[in-house]
Amino acid sequence: MSINKVLIVTAEPKSVFLEILFKYFNSKKYKKNKKLILVGNKKIIQREAKIYNYKKEIKQISNFESAIKDKLNIFNIEIKKKNYKKYISDCFKNSISILKKDSNIVLVNGPIDKKKFLDNKYLGVTEYLAKKTNSKNPVMLIYNKNISVSPITTHLPIKYVSKNITKSKIIKNIRSINNFYKKIFKFKPRIAVLGLNPHCETVSKVSEEKKIIIPAITKLKKEMISVKGPFSADSFFIKKNIDEYDVVVGMYHDQVLTPLKTLFNFDAINITIGLPFIRVSPDHGPNSNMYLKNKSDPSSIFCAMNFINKI
Q1: Which has the least CB within 10 A, 40, 160, 219, 308?
Q2: Nearest Cα to 296, choosing from 51, 54, 17?
């Protein structure tokens, strides 16, 4: 698989994303082997380029085809009357319009304030993009070269988690992860599955482990997928297990993202599997409190671009 075009949605106006992006562009690790198009407001991008001492030319383009490989290209999105919600929506709409014509592109989006942009209509950008592209089963994969994690339920309140875990969902997600690794990384991943309950036990007559998780694992093993579990979440993330597995599938968001971020800080990226294109997002928030302070850790964008440069 070879992709030579990258759309970067700069999204949230008051975010540290452009800071970390220009830290990458100013570094020796910046490779000009793909066409990079920043989708966002020209004035904001150029102002932050100046702040972060990016001195090379930035080219404004009116259409995707005119992008040049060895320059930063801007597809300008206007901000009208400081309507930032519409501005972010326009950034995504224009990007999705381009991606519908050519899916052989990677979409990178900066973080957004979900409460302001999504209006509680979607759990997160993963679900928003799935809806806009008619994708039925998006899978969140938080990728690190040492070990990656994937929650069966994403940005779902904890009280709804158990009702949204199904055998079918676990099977579909793990199939997608397995196929993604074989297609992109050219190997069959070793997958561990965590239980839902502490120590995979419950005082209820029937546990989710026995009713849902174990039958799903049994089915996947029959398909020759390398999967084991369920494992107790409280003791799983030790070095021995990290060395033994490539992906850990958990039942809910914080069950797997908390240990991963504790281990690797910002050296991870959010990949959405199951869209018509590959979508990557640095694994950090807008962090508006640090906006324009030039103190943000750029590890996640380096991780994102390193991944993109290899596909």
Answers
A1: 160
A2: 17
Indicate left, alpha or beta for 43 from its phi (over 0: left) and psi (-120 to 50: alpha): alpha
**Residues 6 or more apart from 300 whose CB is under 8 A from it?**
20, 266, 267, 268, 269, 282, 283, 284
Contacts of 163 (CB under 8 A, 6+ apart): none
- Comparing CA positions, the residue from 268, 258, 271, 255 lying closest to residue 297 is 268
| Residue written as token pair 């990458």 | 24
Identity of the amino acid at 13: P
Phi, psi of 107 (to 5 degrees): -100, 125
- At the fourth CATH level, the homologous superfamily of domain 1-135+275-311 is Isopropylmalate Dehydrogenase (3.40.718.10)
Task: Report the sign of the C-alpha dihedral through residues 264, 266, 268, 273, in that order.
Answer: positive
> What integer best gives the mean pLDDT of the chain?
91
**CATH code linked to domain 137-269:** 3.40.718.10
Residue 54's pLDDT band, with cuts at 50, 70 and 90, is very high
